[in-house]
Amino acid sequence: MTEKIIDAIVLKSQDFKDNDKIVYLFSPAEGKFSAVLKGVKKASAKLKFAGEPFCFAEFTCVKRGDMATITNAYQKESFFELRNDITAFYAGVSALEIVSAFAQEGVADPALFVCLVKSLSLMVQGVNPKTVLAHFALCVLDNFGQKPCFETCAECGAKVKESVFCFDVGGVLCQNCQNDFAMPLDEGVRRVLVNLSAFSREQLATYKMSNVLADKTLHFLNDLFEKNFKKINSLAQLLQL
Ligand SMILES: [Zn+2]
């Protein structure tokens, strides 16, 4: 039996047995892991908050064999306010789901953790959640060496303007290199992707884009995740609001 104190954020949770929950967490030092939170569905449960997505806490975990149990939690910050706005909520849950899809179990990834926490903070502060989510998605792809280049042709390296995107190649293609599988990429969306790729998170508060363009950009990223990585269900839901 080993006890560990771990900073982590709750990505999701699911009911387990009568009164328990399995909590899926992401920690800068431990990567993705799950733990049981016992008795949390009882009305008197003190650690209810620790089983809720968006909770960022210092968790005390006790490991017996393969199973970890949360025995205590001290809340450091929460992003529960995102629940007050449906767009911000789905954008926040999409960010959690993207981390769930990309983070590895037991692999430390402090950069991804900082990116997640700071992006959720920006959403809580009222920065356009769709802009923050698009920037976050590009940061995650970059973190895993999977971010397409939106400025130069993935085949020949030529600068592109009016372009097509090929999911098989994983990048934009120029007129000369385009193939039968490439799809047109809206020039407005391509510019947003180029801009967001170059921006720091701090610059997002002053970046203006129309809701239509934000939705088109998220539609593209939704397709990219679904075709090349993993479908992000909350992102698809966000686009249906
Ligand atoms: Zn080319």
Keywords:
alpha+beta; binds zinc ion; 8 strands; 241 residues; de novo design (two linked rop proteins); 3-stranded antiparallel beta sheet
How is this fold's topology laid out?
Elements lengths: L1 E15 L3 E8 L3 E7 L17 E10 L2 E12 L7 H17 L7 H15 L4 H15 L19 E4 L4 E3 L9 E3 L1 H12 L12 H18 L4 H6 L3
Parallel strand pairs: 3-5
Antiparallel strand pairs: 1-2, 1-4, 2-3, 4-5, 6-7, 6-8
Helix pairs in contact: 1-2, 1-3, 2-3, 3-5, 4-5
Bound molecules: zinc ion.
The site of zinc ion has 8 residues, from loops.
Structural commentary:
The protein is of the alpha+beta class and 241 residues long. The chain has two domains: 2-78, Nucleic acid-binding proteins (OB fold (Dihydrolipoamide Acetyltransferase, E2P)); 81-238, Recombination protein O, C-terminal domain (de novo design (two linked rop proteins)), CATH 1.20.1440. Helices cover 34% and strands 26% of the residues. The protein has six helices and eight strands. The strands form two sheets. The chain has a five-stranded mixed barrel with strand order 1-2-3-5-4. The chain has a three-stranded antiparallel sheet with strand order 7-6-8. A hairpin with a 4-residue loop joins strand 6 and strand 7. Helix 1 runs parallel beside helix 3 and helix 4 crosses helix 5. It binds zinc ion. Zinc ion (ZN) binds at residues 153, 155-156, 158, 173-174, 176-177. Zinc ion is lined by residues 153, 155-156, 158, 173-174, 176-177.
